[in-house]
């Protein structure tokens, strides 16, 4: 049986979306036990015209208190307390004894990813020309 398309909502925070495109954000912590499956997922932001495809590789049901250091740090938090405070922006009742789901993905792809990498390559090329193509130390 083929499963329906899954979607993970990404907050309308520019840095977070850029980190997904760059491949440096590949994890999210969600409140409650979520019914996600391994396989294809659309990462999207309903408040911005933004959507990419990815593959879910890990779904772990746990509590906030059992989220390990590697997981909360990979999601951008420095400590368990900072994680709880950050999660409360989206989930006001988040606490160490409450259920949570850790979701990991990889293979982010799609038009926005391609455009992001083209912009990064263009910036790098401009930077190389600016710093390496002029001045007394050029090749």
Helix-strand layout with pairing:
Elements: E1 6-9, H1 14-22, E2 27-31, E3 39-45, E4 50-63, H2 69-74, H3 80-87, E5 99-109, H4 111-132
Parallel strand pairs: 1-3
Antiparallel strand pairs: 2-5, 3-4, 4-5
Q: What shape does the CA trace take?
A: globular
Q: Roughly how much helix do the residues carry, as a percent range?
A: 25-40%
Tally of DSSP helical segments: 4
Largest sheet: 5 strands, mixed
Q: Which CATH top level class fits?
A: Alpha Beta
Class by alpha and beta content: alpha+beta
**Oligomer description:** single chain
> Strand-and-helix sequence, N→C?
EHEEEHHEH
Strand runs, count? 5
Whole-number tally of structural domains: 1
Mean pLDDT: 91
Q: In which order are the strands of the major sheet placed?
A: 1-3-4-5-2
| The CATH architecture | Roll
Q: Briefly note the CATH topology name.
A: Sulfate adenylyltransferase
Radius of gyration: 19 Å
> At the fourth CATH level, what is the homologous superfamily?
Sulfate adenylyltransferase
Low-confidence stretches: 135-139
Distance between the termini: 61 Å
Give your account of this protein's structure.
The chain has 139 residues and is α+β, with helices and mostly antiparallel strands. The protein has a single domain, classed as Sulfate adenylyltransferase (Roll), CATH 3.10.400. The chain is built from 4 helices and 5 strands; from the N terminus they run βαβββααβα. Strands 1-3-4-5-2 form a 5-stranded mixed β-sheet. A hairpin with a 4-residue loop joins strand 3 (39-45) and strand 4. The chain is globular. Mean pLDDT is 91; it is low at 135-139. This is ASCH domain-containing protein. Residues 8-109 form the ASCH domain. Pfam families: ASCH (PF04266).
